[in-house]
Amino acid sequence: NDRNSDLICKNNPELCSDLHKDSWCRFEKGDLIRHRYALKQSSTPTGKQLYQQLVYLENYSNCIELAAGVQHKLNTDRTRDRERAFAVSTQT
Hints:
4 helices, about 65% helix
């Protein structure tokens, strides 16, 4: 099923390894995962597909930047995970 981002991540962990694990930014994250999967399935991605990938990545990066600012007092791993995801998304 190419519409279920959880299933895509389970079957293709390399597509999701740089993303955060919790439920923040789920729409942006889902769009990014599905488009990464579509690019993986495409033998020769077009310029339009690559540009759209950059747009999805920028949307995700903007959302996770806000989420990274939320500090968890009990579960600090979530904060570190979001900060890591934001840093990787800006580098990418």
